[in-house]
Structure formats: structure tokens, C-alpha cells
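Something for you to look into today, if you have time. Just paste the record in under my message, thanks.
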Amino acid sequence: MLGKLFGNKEKTHSLKIDGVDKSISISSKETLLQAALKEGVKFPHSCRVGGCAMCKCRLVSGKVKELTEKSYILSAEELQTGYILACQSLPRSDVQVEVDFSRADIPEHDLVTTPGKIIAQNPLTHDISEIVIETDKDIEFTAGQFAEITVPGDITDARSYSFGSAPGRYKNEIHFFVRAVPGGAMSNWILGDQAVGTKVELQGPFGDFYLRSSDKPMLCVAGGSGLAPVLAVLEDAANQGVNRPVSFLFGARTEQDLYCLDQIKEIKARWKGEFEFVPVLSDEPEDSAWTGARGFVTAHFEKYCTAETQLYMCGPPPMIDAAIAEAHKYKLEDKDIFFDKFLDKSDLEKPKQNEPAQTA
């Protein structure tokens, strides 16, 4: 979920996408997917980390450097015919790709780049804070989407953060939930004493995590700062009068890691249909006063997940991967599973070693 990546000497190439009229200028430090999305191309994608194959495309011509192994996610036939993952491919020359746009499912909004200023930092837990940024321009978005943030002159590699409130709640003001990542340059800076009052730059919206139109029961799962987009989706749905049954599992380590409980309670009070909220603690001491659910959120899928459910999830990759596998046990199909994996920069800085560039 990050911006420009890797490389020593930055070069500029052209990216040609079959079906898109214009040629896109792309830096050797950004992936094909990043360049396409920044130009407003509705490129099919989901996880952005090489774990779902939604952004697969066929390399027609040119060379790319692939950041992660793709053989486990693409079929043998796709590998033989030159398919690559756009989110994991850096250009090493001018590149042309072929994309199946019928798989694209991204809300229509203008891509906005705007200066902003951090005006507030509100602690939520010991390692998560709400960050409020006042922007020069308003960014229209769909609940569940995210923006990319840079700090001009300081942190130029963009970091992605999901909008933490429903659209329209604030004017020229954006709220994010930021978790302190050990060694994380952006998260530790933005949560530090010097951040409030500092100017930043935002670009968005991005992402295809949002509430789909359906009458199916919703199973929502969040972990850590992954609560932000799920909360935004539920708040917006409550504003719209959605009456679908909802089961909301919020996974945390201990009771001290739960947050925004009053806001969740308020959404539940306004919900037109059934709404069950279940906080699940994985590391709460056995001798504590906690009487709620324990373990991992997947241990509670038996009660809430069926083949007729729509599953919405945001959080760390291990939780998402385990939840998808668990959902498959209950015959839930991938077409009804929607997620956004929350990763830090270290998750993406794992390029393949001693691998030649992919050539069409």
C-alpha cells in the first residue's frame, strides 16, 4: 500500500496499456500499477502486494523487474504466456501491457493532489493514533478507500492510509488511524512530537475496498488500524439507511487495544437492521475481568460465516489470509470476499535475489 519503491538511479520510461489512449510516463522507482492509478486508469487490483493476482496483465513488450515471486499466484499457462503482476513490476524499459478491464471494480472519483497540514494527533491506544489533516482541496472518496501521504523535502516515498470516517462528514479535513510501526519512518514521524503543524501532501482516492450493493448478510472483520476503513464503511452505510444484517468481529490483543467503542455503539444504535458487535481478544490475561470472546477472529467464523455472507476485512496480512482460508471452509466464494491488507514498507521491500528482468 505504498508509493514509489526502490532503485538507485531513477529513470523515466513510457507505459502503454492496451485500450488506454494515452501513453503514461512512469518512473523506474514506481510499479506499473502505481503509475496507472495515478493517471486515473481503472486498473484491476485489490491487495497491491502480489497476493491476489487481481492486477495480473500480459507483458506485450519491454522489460520489468519483478519484486516478488509470482509462480505461486499465477497459473503455468499464464506464466508461459508472459503474465506479470502490475503491483510488483518496475519498468526497466518502455513497457506495453494487455489488461482485462472487465475485472476492474473501482469507484469513480477524480484523483486529487493537495497540500495539507497536520492539525491534530489524538491517541487511541498505546500504538495507534487518529491523525487529522486539514487540506487545501477536498478529496471526494468512497468509504473504504485510501489516500497516499508524503512529507515534502523529508519523506518522499508515499505511504497509504485509509480514510477513517464516512464521506462528507468533514469539509477539507481528513482523519486517518496510524499505527506506530517499529522502525517505520513515516508512522514514527507522524506520531512524533514534531508532526502537528507540519505540511504534507496527499493524493487520492485509491482502492477498491467498499460496500457492494447486495441484500446478503455482512460479516465485517477488522484488526489494528484496519478498523479505519471498516468503520468508515459502516458509518456511511448507517447514514444511507442500509438495513442488512451485520456481524462485526474486531480482533485485538488485549482489552487495552480496543478503541472507538463509543463510535461503534453509535453506529449500531442507528443501524436499521440487526447489528452484532463482537470484540475478540487473542492475548488477554486469563485472570483478567474480560468475559467476552477470546482467541483469533477466525475461531468465531462458524457462527457468522455462511455461503450467503459477504465478507469485508481490513487488517494485517496473516489475519486476512487465515480468514479467507476459514471462509472457504464455509463455502464462501471469492466473489463475496473483499479485503484490504494493511502492510508496512518492510513487507514490500523483499525483491527477488539474482533474478533477471522479465522480458516480453
Residues 218-345 form a domain with the Rossmann fold fold (CATH 3.40.50.80).
